[in-house]
Design goal:
The protein is of the alpha+beta class. The chain is built from 9 helices and 11 strands. Strand 6 and strand 7 form a beta hairpin.
Length: 251
């Protein structure tokens, strides 16, 4: 996605006509279709080999030459920022939060199988939700890849048990617009949207984020340190998930 997304997005007629929300949706859907092609299958296997993970990925390949994207997937949370607007497209349980005058504004929805709207789609596609997991396995209801859950040829991409279709939010940039936080579910298992904004705001009000002593990357490190499990045996899973996060500051 990192390699291709921007070019795919900019190639859409919707992007060229500045219909950015529609363009984001079209890019998500296109990439998911593209994953089920020979070129993408080869690229995924090449990436696995580059990161010396071929053995772990190969354990997921049931047949010679089978597509890795059948058995693995990822969330995608994208912010497109213009001079006056912020557009956010999200598929999965990552989250984008806008801090505006100190207040946290959720710019995405966590796509969990127990959400009524998500559960309704899953069941219409002949799936089920058990222990907040799709078919008792996958603990999110939208993603790129995970093609194993997208095989019903009688349904559109949007109607599949697991869909890549993002939800879309937009917000006008004003003088009160401070920063965006985009993070994976490991962050939000431990922090509310408001607590994450409070943490970043507290650090940046004490010293400008542009100064070397308080780089945004250092603020993220401090955030991670504050929530990571100190004792795995007693943490009951809190703070044990992977944590990936970025901050976008509006000067």
């Amino acid at each position: 996605m990192k390699k291709h997304f921007v070019n795919i997005l900019k190639s859409t007629e919707s992007y060229k006509s500045k219909n950015y929300g529609k363009a984001l949706s079209e890019a998500f859907l296109y990439i998911d279709r593209k994953l089920d092609t020979p070129d993408s299958m080869k690229e995924l296997n090449d990436i696995a080999k580059q990161f010396n993970q071929a053995s772990s990925f190969n354990s997921l390949i049931r047949k010679e030459g089978e597509n890795l994207a059948i058995y693995v997937g990822c969330t995608a949370c994208v912010a497109l920022i213009t001079k006056s607007k912020i557009y956010v497209a999200n598929s999965g349980d990552s989250r984008c939060v806008l801090c505006k005058n100190g207040k946290a504004i959720d710019m995405s929805e966590d796509h969990k199988p127990d959400n009524p709207k998500e559960k309704e789609r899953i069941e219409k596609a002949k799936g089920f939700v058990e222990d907040n997991r799709v078919n008792g396995v996958l603990n999110l209801s939208r993603s790129m890849g995970d093609l194993e859950y997208k095989k019903n040829k009688e349904l559109t991409q949007e109607e599949q048990m697991i869909t890549v279709l993002p939800d879309l939010r937009e917000e006008t940039i004003t003088p009160d617009t401070e920063f965006l936080i985009i993070g994976c579910d490991g962050i939000w298992d431990c922090l509310t949207s408001q607590k994450a904004c409070d943490f970043v705001k507290d650090k940046t009000t004490k010293q400008s984020p542009s100064k070397s002593g308080n780089k945004l990357s250092k603020i993220l490190e401090a955030m991670f340190d504050s929530i990571i499990a100190k004792d795995v045996t007693s943490s009951m899973g809190i703070g044990c998930d992977n944590m990936t996060c970025i901050i976008i500051f509006f000067k």
